Amino acid sequence: MADRERDRERERERERSVPRIRLDLPSERRYRLLPEYDPEAFGRLSERIARFLGTGRFLVWMTLTVVVWIGWNVFAPASLRFDEYPFIFLTLALSLQASYAAPLILLAQNRQDDRDRVNLEQDRKQNERSIADTEYLTREIAALRMGLGEVATRDWIRSELQDLVKELEERGRERDLFPPDGERRSDVPDR
Questions:
Q1: Cα 60 to the center of its chain, rounded Å
Q2: Chain-centre distance of CA 34, in angstroms?
Q3: Which residues of 74-86 are buried (b: 16+ CB within 10 A; e: fewer)?
Q4: Residue-wise DSSP of 20-35
Q5: Are 111 and 43 spatial neighbours (Cβ–Cβ below 8 Å)?
Q6: 107 and 51 in contact (C-beta within 8 Å)?
C-alpha cells in the first residue's frame, strides 16, 4: 500500500517537472538568425526584373551607360576620370549585373514553367472532359438514329395504309363486296 502511494507521488512530481504542452494555445515565436521573406513577393520582383532585362529599353539604357562611361573616362580631364583605360571598374559592374541577372532570369523561368505546367494539366483535364462528352453525345446520337430507324414515319404509315386499302379492294372485288363505282348495292337486304 505504501509502495503504491510512493509511486503515485513520484508520478505527480514527474508531471510537475515536465512542462505540459498545450495544443490549444499558439506556440511562442521562435527567433531565427536568417531574415524571413515572402517567396511569392520575391518571385514577382524577379519576374519584373527579368521582364525588364529582356526589353529593348534595357539594352538602350545599358548601351548608353557603357558609352557614357567609356567616353567620360577617355575624354574627360585626367583629374575627373574614375576608371582608366582597361576599365576594370566597368568590367566589375557589368559582371556584378550579369551575376544577379542570370539567377533572377532563371527564377522567373522556373515560375513560368510552374505556371505552364499547371495550365497544361488543366488543359489536359479539360480535353479529357471534352472527349468524354463528345463520346457520350456520339453514343446518344447513334442510339437516337437506331431508335428512329424503328419508329414509324408518316410516309411509311401512309404507304402501309395504301397497301392495305388496295389489298382490301382486291379482296372485296373477289367477294363482290366492292362493286365498281356504277353499281352500288345497299347493305340492307331487300324486303
A1: 38
A2: 36
A3: eeeeeeeeebeee
A4: PPPTTSPPPPPP-SSP
A5: yes
A6: no
User: Which long-range CB contacts under 8 A does 129-132 form with residues at least 24 apart?
Assistant: none
Q: What is the pTM of this model?
A: 0.50
What is the separation of C-alpha 126 from the centre of its chain, rounded to a whole number of angstroms?
8
Q: Is the separation of the CB atoms in 39 and 111 below 8 Å?
A: no
User: What is the largest distance, in Å, between two alpha-carbon atoms of the chain?
Assistant: 152
Burial per residue of 2-19, b for 16 or more beta-carbon CB atoms within 10 angstroms, e otherwise:
eeeeeeeeeeeeeeeeee
- Report the alpha-carbon distance of residue 109 to residue 112 in Å, rounded: 5
The three three-digit cell numbers of residue 88, written as one number = 576594370
Cell of residue 99, nine digits = 551575376
CA distance 162 to 154: 12
Give the CA distances from residue 13 to residues 2, 4, 8, 10, in Å, rounded to whole numbers and listed in that order: 17, 14, 9, 5
Angstrom distance (rounded) from CA 96 to CA 60:
19
- Lowest average pLDDT, out of 68-72, 155-159, 161-165, goes to 155-159
CB 53 within 8 A of CB 105: yes
Q: Please tell me which residue, 144 or 95, carries the higher pLDDT value.
A: 95
